[in-house]
Amino acid sequence: MDKVTVIGAGLAGCEAAWQLAERGIKVRLVEMKPNKMTPAHHSGDFAELVCSNSLRSDELANAVGLLKQELRELGSLIMECADATRVAAGGALAVDREGFSSRVTERIKSQPNIEIVSEEALVIPEGEVIIATGPLTSDALAQEIAKKCPDVSFLNFYDAAAPIVTLESIDLDSAFYASRYDKGTADYINCPMTKEEYLAFWTELCKAEEAHIHGFDDAGVFEGCMPVEVMARRGEDTLRFGPLKPVGLIDPRSGRENYAVVQLRRDNAVGTIYNIVGFQTHLTFSEQKRVFSMIPALKNAEFVRFGVMHRNTYLNSPRLLDRYYRLKGEPRISFAGQITGVEGYVESCASGMCVGLETAARLLGRQSLNFPRETAIGALALYVSDSSVGNFQPMNVNFGIIEALGKKIKGKRNKNAEISARSLEIIKKYSAEVYK
User: What's the CATH superfamily of 4-160+312-434?
Assistant: First the structure.
C-alpha cells in the first residue's frame, strides 16, 4: 500500500496522520516548520495554538463540549494531549500552550508509521493526499490548489491573536480571582473598571493606531475573532456586552458587579503567564502597550507577546468538497482543518479525525463511516459540504446544525443535554466499528 501524504502538522494534520498510522497505514507528514515560519507562528512544534490556549467549553450542554467528547470516544490524539496538559479555566478546557504542542509533537514523532518531512510543500504530490495547511497556506501551494478548482475562488478572512502578560506584573490589588457565575473553581483573574476608567479606555481604544495590513478592512474579519478595537468602534457599550461584560462576576471587595471587567486566563500550566481574554487585536505594539495599560490591574503589565493579526484562507467548500472532505473533482485529494471553513481548534481536529478515518477505511477496503447529522462530527462535515449553503462563512460547531430531537424539551440546557446523550450513544457504536 502506498503512503498517504499529509501536508501540514497542525491540529487537523496531526489528527489525520495519527488515525491513519494507528491503522497500519504509512504516512508521509510534510511540515515546513521550523525551516519556514509564518508571521503567526512562534514555535517549531506541531499543533501550535496560534490564537487562544482555550478549546472552549467542556460541558455537554454546549456543542463544542459534545464534539470534544465524541472525539475522545473515537480515540483522538489531540484530545488526549489536551486533557493531559489541561490548565484551570472554570468550565472550559484550556491547555498549557507549549506543553500541549510538545506532547503532540512527541507522540507523532514516536509513531513508527509516520515519516516526518521538514520542507515546504510546493506542489500537490501524486497518490492519496490530505491537505491540512490551515488558514496560512503558503502562496505556492495555494496556487497549486487553485489549479484543481479553477472555476471556484478561494475565500479569506482575517484572524487575530490576543496579547499575553506575566502574572508577576499584574496588580492583584486591583483585581480578583473568580469564574463567571462561580462555575468550577476561581480560575480567572478579573480586572474591574469603573465607568470613568472604562470610558477613558474605550475612547483611546477607538482612536488607537492600527498596524497596516495589506487589503484589510473591518468587513473581512470573522465575527468569532473580532479585534477588540473593531468591536469598540461599534458603540460605547459593545465591549460591556462582549469581552468586558461584568455579568456573573461579583467583586468580593464590594459584593457587587463592576461597570466593566477584563478577564485574564492562564496560558501555561505553572500559571506564570496569562492571556487577555477577547483582546484579539491588530493595533501596533506600542499602542497595545499604551492603551491596554490603562486597565488598572495592567498598569505595569509586562507583555511577553503582543497581539497579532493574519490572513486566514479557506475554500468555498460547499462547491468543492463532499461529506468526507474530499475534492469532488479529484477524490484522491482531501482537505482538513480551517482551510475547509471549519472554525476553531476542536472543529479542525474533528475534520482531521473524519478525513483520517475515512481515508483509512477506503484504503483498507472497509465501509465508509458516514457519521450522521445527529452527531456533532457528522453535522460539521455535512454543513461544510452542503451545496445549498449560499454565502458560506467559517462556522463553529453549534446545536443549530445538529439534527433536532423531534420532540419538545423544556429548557435549552435540558434539550442540549438530551441531544448530546443521543449523539454519544450513536458515537459509541461507531467507535466499536472504528476499532474492529
Answer: FAD/NAD(P)-binding domain (3.50.50.60)
Q: Report the DSSP pairing between strands 333-335 and 129-131.
A: parallel
Q: Is the distance from CB of 58 to CB of 82 less than 8 angstroms? A: no
What is the structure's pLDDT at 39?
Answer: 60
The domain segmentation of the chain, as residue ranges, is 4-160+312-434, 164-307
Whose CA is closest to 80, among 112, 116, 47, 32? 47
CB 76 within 8 A of CB 93: no
CB 234 within 8 A of CB 220: no
Phi, psi of 13 (to 5 degrees): -65, -40
* Whole-number Å distance between alpha carbons of 39 and 82: 24
- Of the pLDDT bands very low, low, confident and very high (cuts 50, 70, 90), residue 394 is confident
Extract the C-alpha cell encoding 205: 481604544
Provide the H-helix boundaries in 225-336: 228-232, 285-292, 317-320
Options 2.60.420, 2.40.30, 1.20.1730, 1.10.3470; CATH for 164-307 is: 2.40.30
Q: At what angle do helices 412-434 and 63-73 cross, to 10 degrees?
A: 20
> What is the reported pTM?
0.75
Distance CA 317, CA 340 (A): 6
Strand, coil or helix: 56: strand
Q: Which of 322, 230, 327 is nearest to 280 (CA)?
A: 230
Quick check: 136 and 40 in contact, CB under 8 A?
yes
Is the C-alpha dihedral spanning 190, 195, 196, 201 positive or negative? Answer: positive
* Set of cell numbers at residue 371: 457519521
Distance of CA 5 to the CA centre of its chain: 23
The mean per-residue pLDDT over the stretch 232-251 comes to 95
Three-state DSSP state, 112: coil
**Helix (H) or strand (E) segment spanning residue 207:** helix 195-207
Give pLDDT, residue 390.
Answer: 67
Kindly give, in sequence order, each residue whose CB lies less than 8 Å from that of residue 218, ignoring residues fewer than 6 positions away: 230, 233
Residue showing cell 457587587: 256
Bridge-based pairing state of the strands 92-95 and 86-87: antiparallel
> Average model confidence (pLDDT) for the chain?
89
